[in-house]
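Bit of a strange request maybe. I'm writing a small parser for structure token strings and I need a real example to test against, not something I typed by hand. Could someone generate the tokens for this chain?
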Amino acid sequence: MVTSKPQVEEQTSDQDNGRYPESSPIPETIIAAPAAPKPDFRLEKWGLISVIILIVIVLLWQVRDGVWDLISLVGDQEAVSAYLISYGAWGPLALAVAQLLQVLVAVIPGHVFLIAAGYVYGFWPGLILNMICIVAASQLGFALARWAGRPVVDRLADKETLDKWYAIGEKQGFMFFTIAFVLPMFPTDMMNFVAGLTGIRGTQFLAANILGRLPSAIMLTMIGAYGIRFESWHWVTIGLFAAVVYIIGRTVVYRIEKQHEND
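Reply from user aminoacidic:
Good idea to test on real output. This should exercise your parser:
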């Protein structure tokens, strides 16, 4: 007797065939909700910058007459001191604006402002005020060069000099800019723009700015604060120190330039 094997029918579900049974509801197309717009941080940044600029303009307007009078008398330390005193509480702001312009416009001599601050406010307040003003102005020049780039900087400084110091600053970085601020042989105001074009970080330039400018700020503020009471040997010591710094500065600049020419 032949026993027939039961036929096993392979049942394939409609779902496996990629079809849905008539009784199954057809799924609706799911539409993703639009993503929430990301906040425009650039808009917030420029809004903050606009507010800061507006505040600065208002402050500058308050002391506009004093600043221009101060700049017109930059060759006379006593006249500068008298003007600072006459503006009372606004004196430090007028001094800050004048020093800012001095750093950005290199033709204005800056030593008069440093001496005047020491004469009017005393050594420690004058030194703190001087350092805040000149360091902040230098950082502003650095940021301007980094933001605006070479085309704008070329209008603010001599192109040939920029090319030379840029090549050196790009190689030696922090140490070079520190030395440039310490020694009077370098065009320190131009170095702010040069640094902004190089790859040095802003924090590194800030450190070089503070360390490099502190010695001259101390000496000039001290002259303003105590110069009237200095005896002859004080002035001789200052003169010898300045002469030594000058000789060292000329030697360092010569070696740096020769190394740059050989490279």
